[in-house]
Amino acid sequence: MSLKVAIVLLACVGAIAAQHYYQQGHQQGHHEEEHYAPAHYEYAYDVHDDHTGDVHGQKESRKDHTTQGEYYLIDADGHKRTVTYHVDGKSGFIAQVHREPIKGYQAPQPQVHKVLAVPVQKAYYHH
C-alpha cells in the first residue's frame, strides 16, 4: 500500500464518518448536547516492497483527546525519515522530523527486460 493509497483511504473514512454525523443530526430534528464515548484506537502497518523499493510504515494510538504516532519512509537519497507527532487536547499537531542515512543502502535498479525480435512473414493472397 503506497502512502497515497493510505491517505486516500483515511480521507474516505473521514468522509463516511462526517456523512454519518450529519445524518444523525438531521434525524433528531433538534439540537441536543451530544455525548460520545471516549475515543480509543491503535493501528500500525509496515510496507517493504523489494521490487519497487517502497519502504514505509506508520503506527498511531489515541486515547480520549490525546493522539500520538510515528511514520517513516526511505527517501530516494537513502535516508530514513521518521516523523514523530502528538496532539493533546487543543494544542494542535506537533511533529518532530528526524533523518538519518542508511549504511549500505542501494536504491533498487530498474529491471531491463530484453525482447527478442521475431521476423514476421508477409502473407501473400492469390485471387
From TrEMBL:
Q: Which domain of life is it from?
A: Eukaryota
Q: Does the keyword Signal apply?
A: yes
Recorded GO molecular functions are:
structural constituent of cuticle
* Signal peptide interval: 1-18
Task: Tell me one Pfam family matched here.
Answer: Chitin_bind_4
**Keywords, sorted A to Z:** Cuticle, Signal
- Could you tell me what this protein is called? Pupal cuticle protein
Source organism per UniProt: Culex pipiens pipiens
